[in-house]
Amino acid sequence: QVCVVCHESGAAITCCSRGCDQSFHLPCAVRGGCVTQFFRHIAFCSDHSPEQAVEAVRDEETSCLICTEPLDDGLCFHTMVCPACKHAWFHRSCIQGLALSAGLLSFQCPLCRDRDLFLPNMAIMGIQIPAR
């Protein structure tokens, strides 16, 4: 299989959306906007990846809660928001780093500390949360 991101052969992951045959390498997934749901062992190409269904508005001065750097406009693949408080905005890479260091038992929204909505939403959006 040829990777839709890097165009090299050997892509082992195929989009699980019905009728889609796009394949990619795991390391190419984030770079190409692909989502891998680690808890279900399925993946989506950038055309079929899940999007956050959160009605949240941010002002122009809102920055990433974790790294304090500016964010892209609105919700997109690289910008995410807490589904519980709708005020905690962060980069995908920043929240992924937090998830990897916190683990399943400690991972929560860095602002409101919600776990009930936050954790499953982040997992669906492709954030890998290790069980440690």
Automatic annotation (TrEMBL):
InterPro entries: EPHD, PHD-type_Zinc_Finger, Zinc_finger_PHD-type_CS, Znf_FYVE_PHD, Znf_PHD, Znf_RING, Znf_RING/FYVE/PHD
Keyword Translocase: no
The PHD-type domain, residue ranges: 1-49
Keywords on record: Ligase, Metal-binding, Zinc, Zinc-finger
GO molecular function, one term: ligase activity
Annotated ranges, domain RING-type: 64-113
A GO cellular-component term linked to this record: nucleus
Pfam family, one: zf-RING_2
PANTHER family: PHD FINGER PROTEIN, PHD FINGER PROTEIN 7
Protein name: G2E3 ligase
The species this protein was found in: Trogon melanurus (Black-tailed trogon)
Highest classification ranks of the organism: Eukaryota, Metazoa, Chordata, Craniata, Vertebrata
Gene giving rise to this polypeptide: G2e3_5
